[in-house]
TrEMBL record:
This is Claudin. It is a multi-pass membrane protein. Its main location: other. The keyword Cytoplasm does not apply. Belongs to the claudin family. It holds the Pfam family PMP22_Claudin. One of its GO terms (molecular function) is structural molecule activity. InterPro entries: Claudin, Claudin1, Claudin_CS, PMP22/EMP/MP20/Claudin.
Length: 211
């Protein structure tokens, strides 16, 4: 019963992490910068994400522009895109595999060994998905930090961490933690020892002495 609860907890955490990875990938706030001109009315906030860049005026109006060409993008941005998309696809596969191996599901009830293996395999997929998202967000965050502290970067174009990065870090951690719980939820097999053999009893003496 305890392993079933741990398994359910792991699946819920991993599923929430997968949803968070999707939200982080779609958000445009991967890095943000605020710029105010001579008049506060002209103040605006700039956001850049994996798919578009946005500008929010002080009046609250937001304008976004999707990146025109994939080939014109930087290689680092394309690699970050690929890692996040791979994390989403792996998470989708992990959902189906883990659901199949859940103890509360009736599928594969006739073979409990395969059912446990499916749950563990789903947990491994979730861990890989979380690691892919963690690498992507950390790599992107490292680039933002290096550009921010670069003295040659203009002050009005220095970006900081956006909310999508924090969501991505939290989501990848949940996916890894949930996948670990799924891998540890299966009870270990008890070691079976062969039955001890009894020693044969000595044959009862017949009461006759032999010379």
């Amino acid at each position: 019963m305890a392993s079933g609860g741990l398994q359910l907890l792991g699946f819920v955490l991993a599923f929430l992490g997968w949803i968070g990875i999707i939200i982080s990938t779609a958000m445009p706030q991967w890095k943000m910068a605020s710029y105010a001109g001579d008049n506060i009315v002209t103040a605006q906030a700039l956001y850049e994400g994996l798919w578009m860049s946005c500008a929010m005026q002080s009046t609250g109006q937001i304008q976004c522009k999707v990146y025109d060409s994939l080939l014109k993008l930087e290689g680092n941005l394309q690699a970050t895109r690929a890692l996040m998309v791979a994390a989403i696809l792996l998470g989708l596969v992990g959902v189906f595999v883990a659901v199949t191996g859940m103890k509360c599901m009736k599928c594969m009830e006739d073979d409990q060994v395969k059912k446990m293996r499916m749950a563990v395999f789903g947990g491994v997929i979730f861990i890989i998905s979380g690691l892919a998202a963690l690498v992507a967000t950390s790599w992107y965050g490292n680039r933002v930090a290096r550009a921010f502290y670069d003295p040659f970067t203009p002050v009005n174009t220095r970006f900081e961490f956006g909310s999508a990065l924090f969501i991505g870090w939290a989501a990848s951690s949940l996916a890894i933690l949930g996948g670990s719980f799924l891998c540890c939820s299966c009870p270990r097999r008890e070691t079976s020892y062969p039955p001890t053999r009894g020693y044969p009893k000595n044959a009862s003496s017949t009461g006759k002495d032999y010379v």
